[in-house]
């Protein structure tokens, strides 16, 4: 019963383990499903405790008792051999029922699905491993064939099958004792093995290498390989070529292993011992050559080595060339592989403080970020990327600005509007004119109609002020770039803002001293005017409210005056002061009169400046005392100086226009002059070319009809003891005194 239980436990441990572990002492691997069978092993998929994928060779002792010695010999040799061409050992264990060997994940060599370049590189790898075994370890493999060659995930060949390995010159070698029981061994073993007493040497593995070449090229061998194969198959061990000799001969100029792919692989393996000139020359041509390399091998073998080289400084000053090769190789990788192989290295590289490396990363940011998850970009890459905007080196700042176009779609709208666009706006004020220009171009592309998420709020309150500032830049390309960006963003701006803020700022650049700036300004204005016109067509005809009764009367007065005398001046004022006209007229009829002052209506007088002679109105013995009153004078022989009564009622007669004025005999003079003789001013109007010249015809002032006042002004009378006329304040309509002080002037309500 105990034996059956032990057998079941052993079987379960080999198939998959119990409780998530193998249950094998000192063997931290989980045995998975069976993958292949290679004498005397069964190969299973497996995983280590840290999640790495491995391959596990399992030898079942009860089923192969005659091969137990060979399996134990393989486990012992695997533990002691370390070489890039030898299957990498990761762990092993032996129980009473089985032997376990964990290695890197591999599959048996399948020559039906192969690449010619990978076959040549594989032969080189196996030959180098045999040279190491024969010369450095003083061992003989004695069983080289395709059954002992395994292929990694990257497509590289590995030498395994160490069951018959023994020391050079051993008296009782394992390959002689076990050769008779190995299936097919008698047909491929070297002739000297059959001769007793002949010690095995490195030539023994030369024979095995020839056997592997024969299996790889069953039909026709490449040029140059046939001669080498013949030397490896020499029956005389002393004349037979060894694996070392094969490597040297095949790498000569024009040899079978002298190809670009093999040379590149060999250089990457020994790059640490190459000088800077050799590295620069190699990396300069690697990008173009990488396109011809086997895709799987380049992505899984060469790419990690290149990233390691860049990360730890092995590229010297050739970071840009190396990253160009990385981009070339990684462009066809799927997202899962990219996130596993490339993305972690890119995150570490962006955190580097090496400016040469950072500059190279920014140059290739678009390609390096394309396969990364947005969450990784925002959390791990963008914080280090944003430090480039404030770097002391102008080249880093400029490269960061250019790379922002690649970063913007990956960081999301929130980070773009809250942080990235602000960095770009700050760059518009950079000390370097080239950085200012490029930052504006970048902003324009981000804020275009189909941009990657710049909101209207950011466009209005962050971008627009920066553009208006850039329009005054002393560097012409900056102004031209700002104009181009303004034109590109015009359709997203509010038409009112464009009309009131942007167009006035751009207009001076239409006559800029630089022709490219003028052309850009004209294009921007054209786009903005079209935008404004489209908005204007959608606006209502008017936004004014219905006029009240007083407003209607004021409009009637304005229309009447505009069509007759002084239309050019009265029309611009009548609509404003018409309300005050009715108000002041009603005040004069309310009975509130002053004993010490009267109101005068001043007709216009004609002054001829060129002759220096002033024409006074006829019918007056002497001119009125107006020395302290300001007058309006137009320096033209035919010009007219006019003073318009503030509340004149207008009527038309045969002799012209009559302005009937009745302010009230006892009211204070509106201009501040104590003179009650209203009849002393006579005027006659003659219309000439739309203008009115005053003649000697007397004007009879009519009393206007009373209108109910809207606001009752406070009248401040002028006493008789005032002997000196009050100096008038003629600073606009608001200073006119219609029966009260300037602060209580009713006209101010309408201004």
Structural write-up:
The protein is α+β, with helices and mostly antiparallel strands and 751 residues long. Helices cover 44% and strands 11% of the residues. Strand 8 (149-152) and strand 9 (157-159) form a beta hairpin. The longest helix has 34 residues, at 394-427. The chain is elongated. The protein starts with a helix and ends in a 56-residue tail after the last strand. Residues 1-20, 564-705, 718-723 and 730-751 have low confidence and may be disordered.
Keywords summarizing the entry:
751 residues, alpha+beta, 5-stranded antiparallel beta sheet, 44% helix, disordered N terminus, disordered C terminus
Task: Give a brief description.
The protein contains 25 helices and 16 strands.
Write the topology of this structure:
Blueprint: H1 2-15, E1 29-38, E2 41-48, E3 53-60, H2 68-80, E4 89-94, E5 98-104, E6 106-108, H3 116-136, E7 139-140, E8 149-152, E9 157-159, E10 166-167, H4 174-178, H5 185-188, H6 202-216, H7 225-232, H8 243-250, H9 260-269, H10 276-290, H11 295-311, H12 319-330, H13 335-341, H14 343-350, H15 355-363, H16 365-369, H17 374-386, H18 394-427, H19 433-447, H20 456-470, H21 476-489, H22 495-506, H23 515-537, H24 549-562, H25 567-588, E11 606-608, E12 613-615, E13 649-653, E14 656-660, E15 684-688, E16 691-695
Antiparallel strand pairs: 1-2, 2-3, 3-5, 4-5, 6-8, 7-10, 8-9, 11-12, 13-14, 15-16
In total, how many beta strands? 16
Largest sheet properties? 5 strands, antiparallel
Secondary-structure-derived class: alpha+beta
Strand order of the largest sheet: 1-2-3-5-4
Figure out the total of helices.
Answer: 25
Radius of gyration from the alpha-carbon trace, in angstroms: 52 Å
Spatial gap, N to C terminus: 115 Å
Quaternary organisation:
single chain
Low-pLDDT stretches: 1-20, 564-705, 718-723, 730-751
Strand portion: 5-15%
Portion in helices: 40-55%
Morphology call? elongated
């Amino acid at each position: 019963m105990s034996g059956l239980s032990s057998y079941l436990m052993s079987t379960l441990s080999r198939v998959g383990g119990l409780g998530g572990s193998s249950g094998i002492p000192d063997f931290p691997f989980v045995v998975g499903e069976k993958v292949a069978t290679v004498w005397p092993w069964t190969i299973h998929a497996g995983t280590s405790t840290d999640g790495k994928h491995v391959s596990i060779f399992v030898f079942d002792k009860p089923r192969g008792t005659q091969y137990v010695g060979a399996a134990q010999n393989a486990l012992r040799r695997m533990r002691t051999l370390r070489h890039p061409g030898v299957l990498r050992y990761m762990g092993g264990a032996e129980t009473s029922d089985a032997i376990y060997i964990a290695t890197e994940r591999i599959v048996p060599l399948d020559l039906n699905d192969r690449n010619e370049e990978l076959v040549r590189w594989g032969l080189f790898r196996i030959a180098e491993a045999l040279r190491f075994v024969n010369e450095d370890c003083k061992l003989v493999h004695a069983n080289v064939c395709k059954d002992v060659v395994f292929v990694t995930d990257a497509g590289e060949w590995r030498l395994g099958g160490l069951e018959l390995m023994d020391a050079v010159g051993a008296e009782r070698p394992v390959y002689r004792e076990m050769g008779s029981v190995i299936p097919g061994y008698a047909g491929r073993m070297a002739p000297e093995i059959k001769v007793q007493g002949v010690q095995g040497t490195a030539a023994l593995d030369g024979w095995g290498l020839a056997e592997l070449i024969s299996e790889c090229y069953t039909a026709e061998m490449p040029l140059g390989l046939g001669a080498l194969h013949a030397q490896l198959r020499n029956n005389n061990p002393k004349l037979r070529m060894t694996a070392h000799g094969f490597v040297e001969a095949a790498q000569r100029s024009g040899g079978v292993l002298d190809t670009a792919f093999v040379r590149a692989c060999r250089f990457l393996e020994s790059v640490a011992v190459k000088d800077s000139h050799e590295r620069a020359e190699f990396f300069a041509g690697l990008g173009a050559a990488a396109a011809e390399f086997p895709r799987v091998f380049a992505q899984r073998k060469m790419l990690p080595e290149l990233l390691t080289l860049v990360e730890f400084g092995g590229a010297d000053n050739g970071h840009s060339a190396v990253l160009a090769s990385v981009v070339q190789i990684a462009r066809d990788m799927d997202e899962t592989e990219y996130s596993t192989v490339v993305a972690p290295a890119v995150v570490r590289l962006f955190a580097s403080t090496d400016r040469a490396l950072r500059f190279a990363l920014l140059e290739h940011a678009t390609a390096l970020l394309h396969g990364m998850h947005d969450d990784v970009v925002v959390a791990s890459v963008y914080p280090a990327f944003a430090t480039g905007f404030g770097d002391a080196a102008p080249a880093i700042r400029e490269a960061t600005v250019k790379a922002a176009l690649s970063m913007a779609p990956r960081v999301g709208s929130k980070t773009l509007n809250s942080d990235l666009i602000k960095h770009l706006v700050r760059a518009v004020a950079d000390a370097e004119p080239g950085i200012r220009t490029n930052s504006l171009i970048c902003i324009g592309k981000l804020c275009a109609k189909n941009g990657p998420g710049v909101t209207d709020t950011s466009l209005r309150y962050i971008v627009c002020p920066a553009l208006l500032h850039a329009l005054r830049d002393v560097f012409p390309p900056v102004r031209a770039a700002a104009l181009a960006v303004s034109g590109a963003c015009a359709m997203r701006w509010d038409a009112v803002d464009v009309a009131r803020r942007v167009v006035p700022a751009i207009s001076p650049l239409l006559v800029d001293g630089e022709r490219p700036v003028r052309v850009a300004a004209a294009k921007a204005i054209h786009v903005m005017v079209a935008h404004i016109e489209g908005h204007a067509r959608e606006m209502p005809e008017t936004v004014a409210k219905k006029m009240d009764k007083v407003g209607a009367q004021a409009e009637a007065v304005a229309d009447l005056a505009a069509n007759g005398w002084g239309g050019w001046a009265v029309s611009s004022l009548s609509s404003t002061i018409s309300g005050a006209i009715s108000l002041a007229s009603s005040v004069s009829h309310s009975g509130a009169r002053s004993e010490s002052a009267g109101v005068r209506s001043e007709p216009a007088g004609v002054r001829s400046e060129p002759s220096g002679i002033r024409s006074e109105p006829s019918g007056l013995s002497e001119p009125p005392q107006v020395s302290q009153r300001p007058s309006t004078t137009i320096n033209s022989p035919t010009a007219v100086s006019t003073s318009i009564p503030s509340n004149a009622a207008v009527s038309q007669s045969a002799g012209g226009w009559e302005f009937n004025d009745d302010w009230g005999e006892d009211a204070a003079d509106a201009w501040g002059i104590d003179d009650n003789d209203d009849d002393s001013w006579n005027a006659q109007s003659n219309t000439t070319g739309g203008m009115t010249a005053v003649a000697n015809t007397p004007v009879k002032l009519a009393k206007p009809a009373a209108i109910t006042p809207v606001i009752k002004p406070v009248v401040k009378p002028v006493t008789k003891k005032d002997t000196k006329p009050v100096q008038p304040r003629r600073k606009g309509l608001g200073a006119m005194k219609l029966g009260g002080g300037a602060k209580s002037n009713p006209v101010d309500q309408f201004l």
